[in-house]
Amino acid sequence: MDLGLTGKRALVLASSRGLGLGIAKALASEGANVLLVGRSGDQLSENCQAINAEGKGKADWVWGDLAEENFVTAMVEAVKEKLGGIDVLVNNTGGPTPGTVGDMTAEKLDTFFQSMVLRVITLTNALLPQMKEQGWGRILTVASSGVFEPIPNLALSNTLRAALVGWNKTLAAEVAGFGITANMLLPGRIHTDRIDELDGANAKRQNKSVEEIRAASLKTIPAGRLGKVEEFAAAGAFLCSQPASYVTGTMLRVDGGASRSI
């Protein structure tokens, strides 16, 4: 299937590693020109070299921290300078610290709201006029399966990512007439450094080994294994594609069947 992404310009947030990098690679493999964003210049540069060596879509990078107040302004300028415009925006953010509802202080809520919700919404608003003018655009927001079934000890993530659900659904209806789609991609247990970090935190909290925590989690996944970044990224590339032009306002779970909700 031709995804119709050749020459499309994509900004992929938090793409120095993990899920963001996976999506950037998937888009570039379909011929898109991708702009990677993160806080590690060396890692981003290596990522771009690897993508460019494939000889398909082109890759460039820009330093960016979602926690910084000037993040949106910097990204808008980078899109103009390095891509010359925008067709695809992938809203991906790092996850907050693990913890219970009782651990959610006002300071923590404000800090992570800024980077996980506010920056996503304001950046999208800043780039939407370009998409509307050209009559084509894709907005993909990566969240978590916790928006369907809250994940124990991830109270901050469950709370803040759920806020994006209502926003995305509202946005999708407002921009559909301009040829723009807005969807959410929800990872289950995809094997990344983040999953290793969370398993480590749970092991410490429960006084168990990481191996015990991992084995218990695999029993809850019908597929019987952790997902691969490439599998997750392929789903993301499709939602950003031309054939997916009639798919909007949706939440796609990539979780090996782990979620039991309908």
TrEMBL record:
Domain of life of the organism encoding this protein: Bacteria
Pfam families in the cross-refs: adh_short_C2 (PF13561)
InterPro entries tied to this protein: NAD(P)-bd_dom_sf, SDR, SDR_fam
Family named by the database record: Belongs to the short-chain dehydrogenases/reductases (SDR) family.
The protein's name in its UniProt record: SDR family oxidoreductase
The organism of origin for this protein: Rhizobium deserti
